[in-house]
Specification:
By secondary structure, the protein is of the alpha/beta class. It is 42% helix and 10% strand.
């Protein structure tokens, strides 16, 4: 990833443009099944991944396209995966909820709420035992903190001082359930105290704040001091999935959060500081748009998944 806030802005714009195109492809019937868009949440994955090295590991939840891109996956091959094409990262078999690329240290998205948390914890144990000096970023939503896998994993990671950073993208809703209707505390970071784990709640719509918080946790993990918990307060602009009409949210609430849009925030800061001109911003938008156009063209030109390979690489015990 490019260093500095202009580079982070480019990454956030790439994620948003990718997600907006995915949304359109679903409407057009070219992507099937379901998908969970991270429009509005771009600062969390970009800021967090800016704090680690390419050799480090990360995994995500069902809302993971942005995490994959922030971890370095190419937009064209990711788009091909979502379209079920052979040139996708998993040959079209993983789709939106089970795409991974070990070459990029991306351990995959996960369709099960909280399902990726023990995977990241296990990867951190492996890194420690193999003495690779890798750290692991584990992304999940607020709803996952009510799962048993969350508590079991944090307990184990703390006892064994594993090099894992738990990054909670708290967008206030688990599907249509408001966080205060399912969780009796205001800050989910409080839950880490039960495991003697350092924790911080930050503005998840500010890429620089997220990067700083995760960087501190990464330094702690590399020093052998164990895991940390970073809660990123953010908001998804779209529904839980493509069929969600967001009837459980008010227009006033949505407008208030749109005013805290992470991309607009970085744009405003860079323009005000004179580090970015309107012309350069327009050029950046044009480059990102062209990249996503090319990604879609690449995906559509790729052959469909080969049914004969459906069972290849699938393991069960």
């Amino acid at each position: 990833m490019s260093a500095g806030e202009i580079g982070y802005l480019r990454e956030m714009k790439r994620i948003r443009a990718f997600e907006e195109r995915v949304e359109r492809l679903f409407v057009d019937g070219q992507i099937h099944g379901t998908t969970h868009l991270c429009i509005g949440q771009e600062a969390a994955p970009v800021g967090a991944c800016a704090a680690i090295q390419p050799t480090d590991l990360a995994n995500g939840s069902h809302r993971g396209h942005g995490i994959a891109i922030a971890k370095g996956l190419r937009a064209d091959r990711l788009m091909a995966e979502l379209l079920g094409r052979r040139d996708g990262y998993c040959q079209g078999k993983g789709g939106t909820q089970h795409v991974a690329s070990l070459a990029h240290g991306f351990l995959g998205t996960n369709g099960i709420t909280g399902g990726g948390i023990p995977i990241a914890t296990g990867a951190a144990l492996s890194a420690r035992l193999r003495r690779t000096e890798q750290v692991v970023l584990c992304f999940f939503g607020d709803g996952a903190t009510n799962q048993g896998t969350f508590h079991e994993s944090l307990n184990m990671a703390s006892v064994w001082k594993l090099p894992v950073i738990y990054v909670c993208e708290n967008n206030l809703y688990a599907m249509s359930t408001f966080i205060r209707d399912s969780t009796p505390i205001d800050n989910l970071a409080q839950r880490a105290a039960a495991y003697e784990m350092p924790a911080e709640t930050v503005d998840g719509n500010d890429v620089l704040i997220v990067r700083e918080a995760v960087a501190k946790a990464v330094a702690r993990a590399r020093a052998g001091d164990g895991p940390s918990f970073v809660e990123c307060l953010t908001y998804r602009h779209r529904g839980h999935s493509k069929s969600d009409q967001r009837e459980y949210r008010t227009q006033a609430e949505e407008e208030a959060w749109h005013g805290r849009d992470p991309i607009r925030r970085s744009e405003g800061r860079l323009l005000e500081a004179g580090r970015l001109t309107p012309g350069a911003l327009a050029q950046l938008d044009a480059e990102v748009s062209a990249e996503i156009d090319a990604a879609v063209a690449f995906a559509l030109a790729s052959p469909p998944m080969d049914p004969a390979l459906a069972a290849a690489g699938v393991y069960a015990e």
